[in-house]
Amino acid sequence: MTTTRRSVLAAGPALAAAAAIGSPAFAQTQSAAGQGTAGQSAASGGQAPGFYRYKVGDMTVTAVNDGFASRPTEGFVRNAELPQVQQALREAFLPTNQFPIPYNTLVIENGGRVTLIDTGNGDSGAPTTGHWMRNFRAAGFDPARVDAVIISHFHGDHINGLRLKDGTAVFPNAEVMVPSAEWAFWMDDARMNQAPEAMRGGFQTARRVFGPIAKDVKQYEHGKEIAPGITSVAATGHTPGHTAFMVSSGNGKLMVMSDITNHPALFVRNPDWSAVFDMDADQARATRHRMLDMVAAERAQVAFYHAPFPATGFIAKEGNGYRMVPVQWTPAL
């Protein structure tokens, strides 16, 4: 049979159904239904819960989505012309004037312990965020049973999920672990008083989130195993203590890249570009090249905070840059 535009259009509903059945969203819907988790069926127009499970050795890793924020393209990349940035977005099939930046945290189950890496926006983000707790519970988790929360850096979209605006601690029984260099910078009153007005909010957010538990917060150094199977990796530049993580179990390894690239469509493809959020642009570029080179050479699985959900895959070298290769879907665990 010859494929024509008319035959494709006529087959549209069947093709759409077949595509849905093979998609991660459909798999998550079926997984949620099979586990008795909440969620609308595809027939009612609802989407699947925003969680995705995969294995790293004997560990179970669950990506949990917190929605997205729409950012203006102009000014987002400091050292590239707007038409270049728009072309990169166009090549990634993204809007060119404003584009979505996703938020994805990780839950790691290891030997009966539940550990979070970062916490999302809580109730302090854009109207298109704030879905984290619903997705976390849909994945079968209880915030009261979280054993540890590991923070990569102190930007609000990573720490606001620890404490609601009304002061409620979201994970009342969890040990909170933070990079020592982040704590030294953001909790320094002298730095806050000298900071430009645009940065003051970051200092205030850190105090709101961590102030009530300051004496109990555990500070960690780079290059250390900070929890079973989780090693902190220096990834500074984005912030003074920005941290990536190597998650290891048996032969399984996952490099958690945190905010090394922001959106991969821009900064994996163009590692020399500087995001507006990078506090030390030169250091951030050097970190980006080092980490992308390493994971590409080792063919290591990666997880990003701001990549399209489920925000995990691999990095391949391509020309002067790299490209992200998403994971191939496998049945839900």
Characterization of the model:
Residues 1-46 have low confidence and may be disordered. This protein folds into 2 domains: 1-48, no CATH class; 50-326, 4-Layer Sandwich (Metallo-beta-lactamase, Chain A). The strands form 2 sheets. It has a 7-stranded mixed beta sheet with strand order 1-2-3-4-5-6-7. Strands 8-9-10-11-12-13-14 form a 7-stranded mixed beta sheet. The chain is of the alpha/beta class and 333 residues long. The protein contains 11 helices and 14 strands. The longest helix has 18 residues, at 281-298.
What distinguishing features does this structure have?
alpha/beta, seven-stranded mixed beta sheet, single chain, Metallo-beta-lactamase, Chain A, 333 residues
Topology:
Elements: H1 5-10, H2 12-21, H3 24-34, E1 51-56, E2 59-72, H4 82-91, E3 98-110, E4 113-117, H5 132-138, E5 148-150, H6 156-159, E6 175-179, H7 180-186, H8 189-194, H9 197-210, E7 218-220, E8 225-227, E9 230-234, E10 243-249, E11 252-258, H10 264-267, H11 281-298, E12 301-304, E13 312-318, E14 321-326
Parallel strand pairs: 4-5, 5-6, 6-7, 11-12
Antiparallel strand pairs: 1-2, 2-3, 3-4, 8-9, 9-10, 10-11, 12-13, 13-14
